[in-house]
Amino acid sequence: MTPTDIHQPDYFHKVVDCQWGCPAHTNVPEYIRLIAQGRYTDSYLLNRQSNVFPGVLGRTCDRPCEPACRRGRLPEPGETLEEAKPVAICRLKRVAADLRDDISDRLPKAPAVKNGKRIACIGAGPSALTVANDLMPLGYSVTMFEKQNKPGGLMRTNIPSFRLPEKVLDDEVGYILDMGVDIRYNSPVTSLKSLLDEGYDAVYVGTGAPRGKNLELPGRYETDRIHIGIDWLESVAFGHVSTIGEKVLIIGVGNTAMDCCRSSARMGGKTIKVMARRPRGFFKASPWELEDAEEEGVEIVINHAPKRFVIENGKLTGMEFERLEWDAEAKKSKTIDTVIIPCDDVILAIGQDNAFPWIERDLGLEFDKWDMPVVDQKTFASTRPNVFFGGDAAWGPKNIIWAVEHGHQAAISIHQYCHGLPLAERPPAHMNLISQKMGLSEWSYANDYNPAHRQKMEHVDLAKRFRELNIEVEMGFSPEQTAREVQRCLNCDIQTVFTAKRCIECDACIDICPVQCLTITRNGDEEDLRGRLSAPAFNITQALYVSDALPQTKRIMAKDEDVCVHCGLCAERCPTAAWDMQKFEIMIAQAGDLCQIPQPA
Amino acid sequence: MPSITKPIAAHPSLAKNQLGLTIRDYEGSMSTLCAGCGHDSITAAIIRAVWELSLAPHMIAKLSGIGCSSKTPTYFVSGAHGFNSAHGRMPAIATGANAANRALTYIGVSGDGDSLSIGLGQLSHAIRRNLKMAYILENNGVYGLTKGQFSASSDLGSKSKRGEPNRVSPIDPALLALSIGATFVARSFSGDKEQLVPIIKAAIAHRGFALVDVISPCVTFNDHNGSTKSYSHVREHQLRAIEADFVPPAPEILAEITPKGVTNVTMHDGSVLRFTTLPAGYDPTDRQKVYNYLLEQQSAGNVVTGLLYVDESAPDVHELANTSELPLSQIPFEALCPGAATLAKLQDEFR
Hints:
The structure holds 2 protein chains of 2 kinds.
Chain A: H1 9-15, H2 17-21, H3 28-36, H4 40-51, H5 54-60, H6 65-68, H7 89-99, E1 118-122, H8 126-135, E2 141-145, H9 154-157, H10 166-177, E3 182-184, H11 192-197, E4 202-205, E5 211-212, E6 226-228, H12 229-237, E7 247-251, H13 255-266, E8 271-275, H14 287-295, E9 299-301, E10 304-312, E11 315-326, E12 333-342, E13 345-348, E14 352-353, E15 387-389, H15 392-395, H16 400-418, E16 430-435, E17 437-439, E18 442-443, H17 462-467, H18 479-488, E19 494-498, H19 508-512, E20 518-521, H20 526-531, E21 544-546, E22 556-560, H21 569-573, E23 579-587
Parallel strand pairs in A: 1-2, 1-4, 2-3, 4-15, 6-13, 7-8, 7-13, 8-9
Antiparallel strand pairs in A: 5-14, 10-11, 11-12, 16-23, 17-18, 19-23, 20-22, 21-22
Chain B: H1 38-52, E1 60-64, H2 68-71, E2 81-84, H3 90-100, E3 105-111, H4 112-116, H5 120-129, E4 133-139, E5 142-143, E6 149-150, H6 173-179, E7 184-189, H7 193-205, E8 209-215, H8 231-237, E9 238-247, E10 263-266, E11 272-277, H9 287-299, E12 303-310, H10 317-321, H11 333-336, H12 340-349
Parallel strand pairs in B: 1-2, 1-3, 3-4, 4-8, 7-8, 9-12
Antiparallel strand pairs in B: 5-6, 7-12, 9-11, 10-11
Helix pairs in contact in B: 1-7, 3-5, 6-9
């Protein structure tokens, strides 16, 4: 293999599994260390830099960082690989948000002198708010058109308050709007053309995926007790609906279904069943959301495909399902029989679509064969130069953290567009790599991680949560839990950096490495090398770090990054400091970092 | 010394031996030696060898004397028996332990000071008696623990860290051992585990006393230019001429065609030493020829490494002294200590 180029920011970025896995590339290890030091405000602000809504996301994020976490690949003795649990990254984010001090004087502010550019954002959801967050400090005038009477988009309408207290959302949305965003409530945009005619320099479409999928089955329109999930949640959020029948069926088993069933349980639902077509393991809902729903007595019924709504005397009395038997991969099924399950209400939570009836098709904005706007994957630009898309509006439903990242990227594009720079040339990421050596066998980070088990989030007891309907179910980590959980982090951003010319091939690093990730051997191609290491490196998603030829024998040092615990023992046992522990920090560019464009005074 | 003990995490593809143990189960405490010390590498090689041999930790006895080298038994196989003796007196302790319990595997670790200066007499007689043990001599040619004076194995002309050459003739443990009847003589290098691990395995399987002289650079006092025991000097002058593989006793005997140029030596326990690379005319069972070859290469400035000499025919100390087959700990007390009357009777025989 050719020697690894560690000066490519992506190389070490990929070793920080959590940060690499996060769409917005939140610097997780650093914010966890700040929590460990009791610097909650600093931790919050570091989070905010990349994910904008730490308080919201600390409760509701889809957490792509957690399945990526290296601790999840490192079972402790006596544990199986399945029992190894990632660091509770998301919960720690909430700790930082809950314990932060007043941050008002540390928030970005809009400059007194505007740059004269006017941006319209359609929708006030997470992606559009991120666009505003990034552009307001640069002197833009941002006008936001929101169809509801409150901001937040799906963060407000689709996430029940027992999961996300309204104040948390209001605070974080407020930080952005308070920079002077001109937000117009109750103002759905009904024509893009007329909006464009108002002369905005650029328009950002962040309207989400507002149309819940329907289920066209017999009986669908003979009753008013069949609800579309996201619309129903919205009505609940705005107080238009406050009751539901005793027997409720939820069709679909994604995260929206979980919010629907748990909301039903608080509004009079007694027998609540979530009806799934496929077996467990093939659900879209996050495992923890399933767990939380089942804790509240919701039943998940598998292998049932909806067939028709049963209407008797104009009243919905049940629903007929086909019972299915699936093959092992849940690809093919056969019907065993049909059953009728009685119900008073049905909530359809089977997905969402984008819909753009308000965009005229003669504006130079191309639509594809599914009638979706053509949007560039990197620049978020449509085919009309001054219109940008992001969030669920771009390519259909994802989640909040993706929406935030879309917002950041779209903001860069808008900034570039407004200053006549080519959109395709994205600003590069920068990196820092700084030695953490403090003395002989002494590091500026805690290199001895805690092998403790993942801390379990405590919940408000069932009786209380059904008495006080809006009470937040998750109680947050106690100080003891926080202390233990932060110590579980391996500090994967503290990188093992190797300088081949210093190596005397004494083997000390190889001998001390607890996870056998180092090998000095003759060079070979990657497949060959992976099989010849101290412990064969079968996880090909993790890189091999290969050195230049070593001075004495011309062999190479190879490191399997897979399960390195970043303990620093290789560097401590190295007599020549060929190994060093260096903190890696990646600076992903945001709109404000475009050096060609002068910053506002 | 390291800031922390080794984390208990393990690589998912970590293998297990016949006892179901991973190599990590054979580790000891954290080393307090200097970072980069050759001794730590030898420790790692011992760990690998006993793990690969699937020795039960409690059936191993680790013995040592005094010195940097003699600290190392603490750093491998925590579950084994251990004895850290007086300076240079490890062979005597090993002899006593051997007499009392021949069921254990004895691994002695010593250094050039402990073995060739203060303990030379002890070492010599352990070799002569063919005491059943693997004796690993961690040879760095310097008194590291007392800040770098020349030791008894420092080569003539080798320079101290201050730049002064050594003017006192060295003792070569391999030549010494051959001259006093050693039955297993090997030399290796701490920076070459590929060679060292099979040698240690063979030493453990040997019928009697197995001397393994391991050049082990002292990073702090003897790893500079001009030293003949530095990492780079040994790498440049190592003559890795004699390649031997250790083949453990096979459960079934397979008819093997011996390829040309391969010499097999069957060990006492049924395992096989398979020599693949030998200089022309080299016979690892011919003491005289091996001695001459080593002398020749020594004067050429080469460090010959490999399993140099082996003789599986000589009886070990147990056979010579007709010791008890059963460990004393397993003999009933009445038989072990038959009482005052029997003693009186025995003493009468000598009156």
